[in-house]
Amino acid sequence: MTKLPIGALLTCTTMLAQPALAQTGQAIPPATDASATSGDTADIVVTGSRIQRPDYEAPNPIISSDAADIRESGNTNLTNFLVRVPALVSSRDSTRAGGGDAVSSAQFGQTGLNQLNLRNLGVNRTLTLVDGRRHVAAEASNAAVDINAIPTDLIRRVDVLTGAVSAIYGADGVTGVVNFVLRRDFDGVAARAQMGVSQYGDGATRFASLLAGRNFADGRGNVTLAYEYSAEERIPYEARKYLRQGNRRYLVPNPADQPDDPRVPDQILAGDLHYTYISPLGAIFVGGEANPSFDGLGRRYDPGTPIAYYWQGGVSTDVPGFYQGDLAPGIDRHLVNLLSSFEVSDALKLSFDAKYARSNATTFGQYPETYYLPIALDNPFIPQSIRAAAGAAGAEGLFFNRDNNDFGRLGENDLRETYRGVVAASGRLSDHATYDAYYQYGRTDLRITRLGSRLAAPYLEALDAVAGPDGTVVCRSTLTDPGNGCQPINPFGAGPATSAQLAYFQRNDRSFARIDQHVASASISGDFGQFFRLPGGPVQFSFGGEYRRESSRFDPNANLVAGAYFGSDEPAVVVPSRGSFDVWEAFGELNVPIVRDRPFAELLSVGAAGRYSRYSTVGSTETWQFTGIYAPIRDISFRGSYGQAVRAPNIGELFQPRSTSQGFLDDPCTTRSVGNGTQYREANCRAQLAAAGRTTLLGEGDTGFVLNGVSQGNLNLRPERARTWTAGVVLRPRFLPGLTASADWYDIALRDAITTVQAGDLINLCVDQPTLDNAFCNSFTRATGTGRINNFTVGPQNVASFRTAGLDLNINYNLPTARLGTFDLRLIGGYLNRLTFIAIPGAPPTNNLDAFGAPQWNANFAPTWTLDRVSVNYNLRWFNATRAFTRNETAANPDIAAAEYLRNAPLWQHDLQIAYQVPDGFGFYGGVTNLTDQKPDPAAYGTNVPISPLGRFFYIGARIGLSGQ
């Protein structure tokens, strides 16, 4: 762990050379694009349309941020910056791509990923573009882009757009699009460097970039080369004192509320919690005993004092530390980008782009564990007290549980390399038409290394120790195979195991994946001005065609294929997978300016767009959109859109092979959980258990267990379809120069949604429906007689639907003064009115509004003050206190917890940056994020609720622009 005192950090200022993007820091007008093919600077290509038009005539709501906004945030991780946009609040940043989430058996290849989640409908429904073009995905299972592959300091601006953009860009954008627009005309040399560290001396970040560009041939050509490096230090769970055992508290069932008293909360906050009957020392069961008699040191097992389904005190494993992984993964990132263009003539402009991105991410999760494993009585490591007790009881053997802290945490290292190349030609066909054609190829190579996994056969051999012929302790297998190299291991006590012992059964095995993307596209844009004009101007058009092919493969290591790993730490069997599809598409768009510059009709225009797609997997799809803009006067305009968007199933959803899957199940049909669901749960549970031959509900012992099941893809999937409409108003009052404000309502209804219900939710969804005749009940079985769940099958299905609606608010006000400098005020706000999920048609809706990740109110306020060479930027990120329990839980149990625990704490993140620009292009800046050091809510189980545990974070940086624009 890097330790960097704050004082030493501040003295490093003069050693940093930070690359500026050779710009003034003034905001670029929203939705402008300097790469437009037209030479008329008044006409620009707006994200969400191929038709050139002024940005204020965009029919769909757009939230734009420029390079200065990113730099002033202090974030070198783009996702950490973009979660300031209310529509992206639930995006997946590094703190949600590490630890247990990334090392769990189902999450191969997701360590360190940064993926955008627009409108809380999933990363696979957010279309991420670079300069309006697709980008290759980051993992074999879905089409989401890793934002780590986007160069931070090459960005001109980022547009976040809601609307039926599938008609413009194709599938995947059912919730909208995030478009990264790069600098394509840079002339000069610029550099930037930044470093930072948390107040705890960890979580250090390093960032450096170098940008060099040259215009030539009288400005007709440009070559820009950019290199960028960034690193984020791994933060272990143990690094935060307030999260350690004895300091962190959890909501647990209230022992004083038996039987249930509506005046007493069902759950209370408790600390010093331990799991049941498992310990780093070992928990030894003699004979057929239900509870452990001894710990691994031969002492009587001290479980502590029972509290609900935990214990307080005793020798059992601590609740917070064992199963918790890293707070943030370690990420090392290199990016190289080449952008080049040359205008041969007005009729031909050639360009070539190339990219190489390398991201190396490492994280660690929980420790490996061993459950109910037999130990022969001739094992010489057995303490004498345990051996005597076994003899007195006439036991034929022992069983033991152990949390193997001395083995080290399980981990994963993912090396991701991304290649992307684009060759394009564009130009003017006439005074009223231009063309654009390009071919791009993208590839992601992924090497996944699982760290510390146990091979079952050698692990069991190492545990089966006996006395050797010379009195030494050896593996039993060594008696018949003296050269097998087995190292006996002692499971009694805390260890530690030696490196030689671990080397016999632990492996850092590697698996590989590759994702390929080919896109060829051609379009013609222009207007019919040479034939006719409407009172508002000529009708504009764009049409074209596109071909796209996506393919991916996953090659697991031989041990995974053979199911050679031990226990629940690893999946039992993972098989290789292959899949591909291609799609041919035709698209078109019209903008009809009905009237312009008339009394009470500054502008009235309507538009339409459509796309027909033919997939090799799911057949044909149609997407369309209608738009309209009405500005009675220049100061105010009204805009709206209505359309249908689609998302075709991705390769993972279609082609995932049949393999073993593990699920942590908490059966809802126990006496403890049967009242925590819908009104149908208890009757359905009793009926289902009766069908299995059981006459009573399940008991406390049937909660919290791991079970192997089956996971597989579904070749019968259909495309998802979404109906989207937006309506908004834009204000640009002439009496208040510098003010622009917009408010837009959005409504997205997604049907035939593809969802893979996890095993733990599968059972709840089954018994919480009005009837047991549903797809979820058919996906698991119960054992005859006991009624316990003994198998499950998970896979994607077109059974769900989503509905979300809300309001986006965007206010920008630039106020220059004669003596006090310039004030630039920006407020982005969000109101979430609706977020519902319906598991299957006819099922009761699940209201996810106001849950964590989906706050009802959300705002980001960012004022900047500039005076001469000094600028000060403040940023407040806020959202309301979110629900700690689902609505079903609180409806079933109004007294589920005391009032102060029913909601998680609201987010109040204050960031501050001060920058100074010195002559000759040099600039220095420093700042702090989470200025008030807000910590995660102590009552919330997740460590990121409502804020990450990184803590107060200090950073400094420097930048230089030696020449250029």
UniProtKB/TrEMBL annotation:
Q: Which PROSITE patterns match?
A: TONB_DEPENDENT_REC_3
Annotated TonB-dependent receptor plug domain ranges read: 56-177
Q: What InterPro entries does its record include?
A: Beta-barrel_TonB, Beta-barrel_TonB_sf, Plug_dom, Plug_dom_sf, TonB-dep_rcpt-like
Describe the location of the TonB-dependent receptor-like beta-barrel domain by residue ranges. Answer: 410-931
* Keywords on record: Cell outer membrane, Membrane, Receptor, Signal, TonB box, Transmembrane, Transmembrane beta strand, Transport
Q: Which Pfam families match?
A: Plug, TonB_dep_Rec_b-barrel
Renumbered to this chain, the signal peptide range is 1-22
UniProt cross-references to SUPFAM superfamilies, sorted A to Z: Porins (SSF56935)
Task: Kindly list any coiled-coil regions of this protein.
Answer: none
Keyword check for Cell inner membrane, yes or no.
no
Location relative to the cell: Cell outer membrane
Q: Which domain of life is it from?
A: Bacteria
- Per UniProt, what is the membrane topology? Multi-pass membrane protein
Family annotation (PANTHER family): PTHR47234, TONB-DEPENDENT RECEPTOR
Family designation: Belongs to the TonB-dependent receptor family.
Name listed for the protein in its UniProt record = Outer membrane receptor protein involved in Fe transport
Q: Which species is the source of this protein? A: Sphingomonas endophytica
